[in-house]
């Protein structure tokens, strides 16, 4: 079993969705002065990245393990590593346990608060895998699991909470839950047949798209609040405008009667949006 199979299992390339926001939280924190000195640290940056990777590996590996029987029934997911017998359930479970332990160990190397918060963080990111069996709120639990990234990165540096990274986490929550609703459009009928809970299965495709749009609309005032409370500048405004434009784009190219461009909206649009927003926001922070 090659490492490549495990990277495919956890869709390692999708780390691009949350990691840019963790970088923003990191650089926000580095503006803070602790005990009269700045707190830039390559060591902490590496630890933040490692914590992100281990947390995401844990979450995705556990999701694939828990959903292995459901995935085997769904034509869209039957080719995943466990149903396709590329990886055994036992090996995936061992992979999850190892990554959970590495995540906790990494947070312990960061600071005491990060270690304490690692427990509720694990509950959220692992608990998501069960939510689709009980509630259509599963999309928002996924969003919460990604929203931990910027606040967690900020805590890693400062050892305390703050309003600006909290607002950023809300933006990530609204953004990621909205695009997860769109992504689940393709499984609407399957979820209904298997009695799984998702927004499209509960409300239908058109209403699901409206709910996703409503969440994304709320991002605009949150971006304005972040501009105020993080004391951002014109470069941030440009990045925010690009981010919002790409959100609008993905809603334009997907129609209730035509979701053929769903993957383009989910992967390309959201991946580019997160990277551009991070580049412009961090650029703004560093240019002060």
Explained architecture:
The protein is mainly alpha-helical and 288 residues long. The protein has one domain (14-286): UbiA prenyltransferase (Tetracycline Repressor, domain 2), CATH 1.10.357. Helix content is 74%, strand content 1%. The protein has helices spanning 3-9, 19-29, 42-66, 68-73, 89-110, 112-131, 138-158, 163-183, 188-193, 199-203, 205-217, 219-229, 234-252, 262-286, and strands spanning 33-34, 37-38. A two-stranded antiparallel ribbon has the order 1-2. A hairpin with a 2-residue loop joins strand 1 and strand 2. The longest helix is centred in the first third of the chain and has 25 residues, at 42-66. The relative contact order is 0.12.
In brief:
The protein is 74% helix and 1% strand.
What key phrases describe this protein's structure?
288 residues; mainly alpha; Tetracycline Repressor, domain 2; two-stranded antiparallel sheet; 2 strands; globular
Sheet with most strands: 2 strands, antiparallel
The number of strands is 2
Helix/sheet category? mainly alpha
Gap between N and C termini, in Å?
48 Å
What's the CATH H-level homologous superfamily? UbiA prenyltransferase
Q: Unreliable runs, pLDDT <50, ≥5 residues?
A: none
Give the overall shape, derived from the CA principal axes. globular
User: What order do the helices and strands follow?
Assistant: HHEEHHHHHHHHHHHH
CATH class: Mainly Alpha
Portion of residues within helices = over 70%
Overall residue-averaged pLDDT value = 89
CATH architecture: Orthogonal Bundle
CATH topological fold name: Tetracycline Repressor, domain 2
Total domain modules: 1
Quickly count the helices: 14
Q: What's the alpha carbon Rg, rounded to whole Å?
A: 19 Å
